[in-house]
Amino acid sequence: MLKYSLKRLGYMAVVLVILSVIMYMIYSLVPANRAYSDADAQVKAMKNTLPKEQLADYFDKLYLEYQRKYGTDTDNKLIRYGRWVGIYPLYDGSYNGLLQGNLGYSYEYQKPVVEVIKQPMLNTIKINIWATILALGITLPLGIHCAVKRGSKFDQGIQVMTIVGYSLPTFLISILFIWIFCSKLGIFPPSGMQTPGNTYVGFRKWLDEMYYLALPLIVMTFCSLGGMTRYVRASMIEALSLDCIKTARAKGLKEKAVIYSHAWRNALIPVVTLVVGWFLGIFGGSLVIESMFALNGMGRLMIQSLRTADYDVVLLMQMFYVAMALLGNLIIDLVYGLVDPRVRVSK
């Protein structure tokens, strides 16, 4: 298993490099020039302090300085990519790229990209962890019960509800829940992540945040019930029809032992992909939920950065998502070996 994991990590590194080249080349085609913008802004700020005939020369000088600073003083895209990563020197022989800890600078927020992403990342993780735990806590036992009671009125009712929930778009469910719980009942606030102007600390601050996040969590959980419940139900129905389950029942094992010790473990194989994908997806954020409830998360930050052409933020986020996707595939394969000995890797 260790040899297999190391081999997969090597493949992941190669894929990450290839995808980083592709993404950098795509974003380099965008008509945006940081060096030109910075030089132009500085020249305009000194417009009234220098004669007009000197402004052009001063702009050219500044433009060259900023190009060297950002590593764009060449039209060779591979050299610029190498400087961005930190494997090719700048004009003065120094290295200042990703490998040296320079993850980019946000011109929209006027601070390093890491500082821009930090709070939205924490908010996204917090929201999605709670939503994932709630969704799995409901859908797994509900799907198992529907499979065991297949064809019953309870099962038919749940299937109707899951189809409705699965069919409705997220933004429509958000609007509906805001209308019910905010406008009509007045139970939850419609937007935000905390009480404006509060000075809460400790447990009181946590309660205030959870109060504001309650409705978005309810919406996210509700939206995920339909697909996951039906997925678990279908997987359990297939597992219950296996010959080994019939043999276990013929041997006189208790029904709970048959369901949870034999059938459930066989049903885990297809469910693992979805469950692990959910947990890895906590870093991605939800654009619709974050926009509807004005939450400062990763999905909302991505769209704002694209609109404002803040490409350092976008490129770093894309690289992070690619790395998480590659890592997720490895984790899923390793988890398969834990839930089913037949797929364990020994070579």
Question: What's the topology here?
Answer:
Layout: H1 2-28, H2 34-45, H3 52-70, H4 77-85, E1 105-106, E2 111-112, H5 113-148, H6 153-167, H7 170-184, H8 202-240, H9 243-250, H10 255-280, H11 287-292, H12 298-307, H13 311-339
Antiparallel strand pairs: 1-2
Helix pairs in contact: 1-13, 2-3, 5-8, 5-10, 6-8, 7-8, 8-10, 9-10, 10-13
Mind explaining what this structure looks like?
Strands 1-2 form a two-stranded antiparallel ribbon. The longest helix has 39 residues, at 202-240. A hairpin with a 4-residue loop joins strand 1 and strand 2. It is flat. The chain is built from 13 helices and two strands. The chain is mainly alpha-helical. Helix content is 72%, strand content 1%. The protein has two domains: 34-102, no CATH class; 115-172 and 224-343, Orthogonal Bundle (MetI-like fold).
Kindly list the characteristics that best describe this protein.
2 domains, two-stranded antiparallel ribbon, 2 strands, single chain, mainly alpha
